[in-house]
Every structure is written in C-alpha cells, then in structure tokens.
Amino acid sequence: MNQDLMIRLFRSIEGNKEDDVVKVATLIIEDEKKRGHDKLADKLKMILEKNISVNQTFRNELRKILPNGIIIPTNKRNNFPLAITVERDELRHEMVLPLDIEEKIRRIEKEYAAKERLAHHGLKYRQKILIYGASGCGKSMSAERIAWNLGLPFLKVRFDVIISSFLGETASNLTKLFDSIKNYPCVLLFDEFDIVAKTRLNSQDVGEMHRVVNMLLTLLEEYNSQGILIATTNIENSLDQALFRRFDDIIEIPKPSLEEIIRLTKMTLESIEKSKNIDWSSLFKQMLGFSAALVVKIANDAAKFAVISNDRILEQYHIENSLNENLLYAK
Ligand SMILES: Nc1ncnc2c1ncn2[C@@H]1O[C@H](COP(=O)(O)OP(=O)(O)OP(=O)(O)O)[C@@H](O)[C@H]1O
Ligand SMILES: [Mg+2]
User: Fold this and answer.
1) Ligand nearest to the CA of residue 290, numbered in listed order
2) What's the CATH number of domain 258-329, 3.40.710.10, 1.10.8.60, 1.20.1740.10, 1.10.10.10?
3) Whole-number pLDDT of residue 203
4) Cα→Cα distances 16→19, 26, 73, Å
5) Consecutive 10-residue runs of the chain (331 residues): their mean pLDDT?
6) Whose CA is nearest to atom 30 of ligand 1?
7) Domain boundaries of the chain, sorted by first residue
8) What is the pLDDT of residues 30-46, one digit of tens each?
9) What is d(CA 187, CA 152) in angstroms, rounded to the nearest whole number?
C-alpha cells in the first residue's frame, strides 16, 4: 500500500489494545519492519500508540457522559474532545464565601431553578456568568458548586484542545462545541477564559486571535442553550470590554476576610481533635491576605502533622509550622 495512504489509515484508527483493528494494525507494523521499512514502521507505531492511549481515555469519558446521544465534538488534529466532564461526586461544592457573593451565586441558582416560571413572564434566567478574582479564591469551584446544587452535568472546555495552530480551526472548534450542547442542559465552564479571550487591543493578538474573539462574541451573543455558561479569569483587565458586556452577571470573588479565614479553617479541621491551648486569633491574623486555597492548604497540612503525631491532637506548633512552610505561596 502507498505509504501516505497507510499513514492516513492509521490516523483514523480508534480503539484500545484488545480491539481487532488495533491487533491487525500491530501486525502490519511488524510486517513493515520485517520488510526493512523501519522508518515507516516507527511512524505507524507512533501514530497508533498516540491514538489508542490518550484518546481512548477521553473517548470513553465522553461516551459515558452524554446519555441522550449528544456527542462532544473533537478536534481535527488528534481527535480529542473539545470538553471533558467532571462526575457529580467529584464536584467541589462546600464553599466559604462573603455573604454578598454567596447571595449572588444563590441568585443564579434560584433563577435557574425558576427558569420556567420566569420564561412564562418572558424573562430569562441569568445564563452567562463571568467570575473573576485572584487565584485560589474559588472561581472554578463556584462553577462546580452551581452544577452540584442544580444537579446539572458539568462540562469543562479544553482550551488546549480547542486552540489550534491551524488557521480558522480554533473558531470552528468553538462553534462546533456550542452547537453540540445547544440542547443539552449543563454547566459549561470556560476556565481561565482569558487564554482565548485576550483583548483585541493587544498587539500580539493579530489575525487568528481577532477572528477567535469575534467568533466568541457572536457565540456568546447567540448563546441560548438550556444550561449555564460560566467563564472565569483572574486578569479582568486584559479581557475585551465587548466580551464583558455579553455576560448576564459578573462576579468578583475577593480574598477571604478574617471571618472567612476562620470559617475556612474550621471547615477544614472539622474532623481533627484540637488542643485547647491554641491562640487562634494570632494565627488567623497572619493569614490575612492569603487566598482561600492557601488557607485550606495550611489547615490541611497542619491536620496531617497532627494525625501523624503521637497523640494525634492538633497543637499550635502544627499550624505554625504549616504556616511557615506555606509562606512562600503567599503573595
Ligand atoms: N471560597 C472557597 N471556599 C472553600 N474552599 C475554597 C474556596 N476558594 C478556594 N478554595 C479551596 O481552594 C481550592 C482551589 O479553588 P479554585 O480552583 O476554585 O480556585 P480558582 O479561583 O479557580 O483559582 P485559579 O485562578 O488559580 O484557577 C479549592 O479546591 C478549595 O480547596
Ligand atoms: Mg480556576
């Protein structure tokens, strides 16, 4: 067979090691090797391995999650799905938020729950949400929590797969993805949205990125699916103002206040026995300005110190050690 045809054929092979088609492909590779076509054999082997290892995980994933026959589209280059799902029991949802932010998020959930009633009056629930704020304050987690509370499937857009070096393909991937979930109620998360939505004023974002941002503007404008679209970013300044306007709600999650630091620590250390001699207030004060993620990490690390210590009780020095160790993450 012509080498180019053979390569094309191999690129289209899907499956896992046990599938007949993969077994036959392996035999062909061996045969080519015996004939002295080492270069071709190596190339075919590389294509086959790539197709059956990485792709397979994602393919199974997407078949599993869309029971109503909707298939998440894949990219042209290596057939990876443009979005992945997170199973319900893996969704993070126990959050500590300032009251006003908690209320804003609840409002999104309440409007979704009442979407039929709203529609009856010609009103539309908050559907396109932008969440921004410093790293580790719960932006991605908020999206998961909304899906969890509403019992909606959770889909996370894979920018690494969507963004293509081929002209026009990024925009067409985005369109394909939006089309595919038009009738599929879910929370669609565009995590770290700025990757694709960099301002059009940025001198580096010429050509293709302009097209992509324009396409995104149109898609957001027309987005009218059954679910909720959530985009997150931690650099709101670099987002195109035109994109900002397309969202129904924009929420900034701040770093935790003293009160939230206390709640985060309590929540994380709930199951740990604590010494009565801990000077909590001085410890909490030292964590002011830290992200929620860092507060949780400090408490978790301290809990681990306590659990592996002899008397298994959390002491002041466990938290102090953990705090000092984690200081390098605090900015
Ligand atoms: N508000 C919060 N309440 C409880 N835990 C939180 C909160 N925010 C962050 N965490 C903890 O920090 C971890 C990281 O949170 P998350 O991934 O949502 O951060 P993020 O804001 O999306 O950060 P990044 O900008 O780096 O993506 C969570 O898994 C959780 O343990
Ligand atoms: Mg995040």
Assistant:
1) 1
2) 1.10.8.60
3) 45
4) 6, 12, 20
5) 83 75 90 91 88 60 60 83 90 96 98 97 95 93 97 90 75 88 91 68 57 79 88 76 86 96 96 94 95 96 93 93 89 63
6) 293
7) 3-64, 84-252, 258-329
8) 999 999 999 999 999 98
9) 6
| Residues at CB less than 6 angstroms from ligand 1 | 92, 95-97, 135-141, 232, 234, 264, 292-293, 296
Instruction: Supply the DSSP symbol for 291.
Output: -
Q: What's the residue count for the chain?
A: 331
Q: Whose CA is nearest to atom 24 of ligand 1?
A: 135
Which atom of ligand 1 sits closest to the CA of residue 131? 21
Predicted local distance difference test score (pLDDT) of residue 201: 46
With the most atoms of ligand 1 within 8 angstroms of its CB, the residue from 189, 263, 268, 296 to mutate is 296
In three-state secondary structure terms, 225 is coil
The pTM of this model reads: 0.79
Residue from 141, 146, 253, 291 whose mutation best tests the ligand 1 pocket (most atoms within 8 A of CB): 141
Residue spans of alpha helices (H) in 93-240 = 99-113, 115-120, 139-150, 159-162, 169-180, 208-222
Could you tell me which CATH class the domain 84-252 is placed in?
alpha beta
